[in-house]
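In practice, a research group might receive sequence data for several interacting partners and want a quick structural hypothesis before committing to experiments. The following worked case mirrors that situation: the sequences arrive first, and a predicted assembly follows.
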Amino acid sequence: MKIARIILLAVGLAGLALGAVVMLTEVRPAQIVGVGIWILGAIVLHDAVLAPALLGIDVLMRRAGRRVRPAVVVIVQVGVVVGAIMSLIVLPEIYAKVLGAKNDTVLPLDYGLNLAVFWGATALLTAVACAVYVRAVPRRAAASAV
Amino acid sequence: MRRLLNGMRRSSTSPVRDARSAVVIGRLLGLAFLVCFATGLYSHFLQDPLPWMRFATWPQLYQVTQGIHITAGIACFPLLLGKLYVVYPQLFQTPALKGPVHLLERASIALFVGASLVQIVIGLLNTYQWYPFPFNFKQVHWALSFVIIGSLAIHIAVKLPIIARNWSRAVPEADDEPPTESEVPTAGVTGRVMRWMDRTPAPEPTLSRRGFFTAVGLSTVAVVALTAGQSFAALKPLNLFGPRQKDIGPQGLPINRTAEAAKVTESAMAADWVLTVMAAGTVATFTRAELLALPQTQVDLPIACVEGWSQMATWKGVRMRDLLEAASAPSDKRLIVNSLEERGGYRTTEMGPEYVGDDLTLVALELNGGTLDIQHGYPARVIAPGRPGVLQTKWLRSLEVAS
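A structural hypothesis for the assembly, expressed as C-alpha cells:
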C-alpha cells in the first residue's frame, strides 16, 4: 500500500504541475484570476449556502417525521432531491434559451414545459410510492422493524 | 469556535455520512472523472494532434467517445453533490488545522472540490453555448482536467487506507464518532439552534442510507436518460432536456455555425466557385459540375460535435483519394483544408494521412438524397470518419497537400 500511495502522490503532483503549466501558458493572467474567483465562489456557494440550506430542510422534514412515518419522509425527500438536481441542470438551459440561441437547432426543445412535466411525474411517482408503502407496511410492523 | 464547529459537525451527522458511503459513491464518481478525462484527452488530441499521432478511422468512434464524455459529465452532477453531502461534516473537523501537512491536505481538497464543481458547470454551460464566465472555455476546461485528475490521485493516496478498509463492507470508524453534547455550544442563539436540532428525531440508519442511495441513483439515471438522446439514438424518445435533438435542422441535421455567421452566403453561391487542389508543383481546379462528373461515392457517416450531440447522415460526393488522383496529387500525405470563411478558428484545418486515404472520406456534394444545403457547407464540404464536427470543414475553398 505504501508503494501505491507514493505512486499516486507522484502522479497527483505531476498532474497538478501540468495543470499549472497549461494554465499559465494557455490562459491569460486576467482570466486565471477569473478561474480562481469561480473556484472560490463554487466552494463558498456549496459549503456556505447549498449544504447548510439542505441541512435545514432535512431537519425540518425530520421534525415533520414526528407526525408522518419516517419512511414516507424519506420517500418524499428522494422525490425532492431528484427534482432539485434535474432543475439545477435544466434551469440554466431555460435561461440560455431566453438569452437567445445561435441558431434554431441549438436548444430546440421547450425545456420549461418539459421540466414542469418532469416535476409532475416525479410528484406523482412519489405519491404512488408513499401510498404503496403505507398500504403494504402497517404502522405497527414499520415501528417494530425500526 | 471549536464548540461551533463541533455543533455543526454533530448536527450535520447522519447515518449516511460515513466512510463506507464515501467509498461507495466516491468510486463511481472517480470512475466518471476518469472516463471524462480519457474521452476528453482523445477529443483534445483529435483537434490538436502531436506530430506523430495517428487515429483510428472507425466511423462511429468519436460519436461514441464524445457522447460518453458529455453524458458522464452530466452524471457527475448527482454523483459529486452526493459525495459532497456524505463528507460535509468533515468541513467542521476540529482542530481545523493540525499542522502544515494537514493544511496542505485540506487545501488540496478545497482545490479538488472547487475545480470539480467549476469543471462540470462550465462543461454543461458549454453544451448550452452560454458563456457567463470571465475566461476561455476550451483552455480552462483543458487545464482544469489535469488539476482535477492530479487532485484525485492525491486524494486517493491520502485516503487509501480508509478506501481499502471500506471497499467491500462497512466497518465502524473509531475516530469518526460525532461530538458529544458537552462539546457543543449551549448558550446564545447558536445554543438555542443546536438544542432545537437535538430535539429533532434522529434519522433511522438503514432507512436514510437506502433513501440517500436511491436519491443519488435515481437522479443519475434521470439526468442521463433524459439528456443522452442527443448522442445516442436509442434514447432519442426520452430526450426531454438535451440541448440538441436529432433530426432537427436543415435536411434533418443540426448545425453549429450557420452560413450567415460564417459570412459565406455570397462566396458559397458565387457562379465562379471552384475547388482548388494544390500539391507540390501542381494546381488543379474543379467546378461543382466537374466534381459531380467524377465517380460518386455514397457513405453513411455521423456528424459528431465536441458538445456531445451527433447525427447519422447519408453523404454522396467524390472520394478524397479519387479527387487527389484526378488532380495528380498524392493521397498519403497530410492535407490542409481551407474554407471560404474569412474568420473563425476552424477556417483552416488539417487532416492526417489516415483520413485522407480512407475509403469513407469524401468531398461531399449531397446530403440525405438532396443537394447539400448551404447551412451544411454547399457547394462542397469534407466528411471523414471518426472526426469532430469542427474538423468536417464546410464551404470548401481549397485543399493543399502538405509537403
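Before designing any experiment, note the following. The two ends of chain B are 70 Å apart (CA to CA). Chain B has two domains: 2-238, 275-401.
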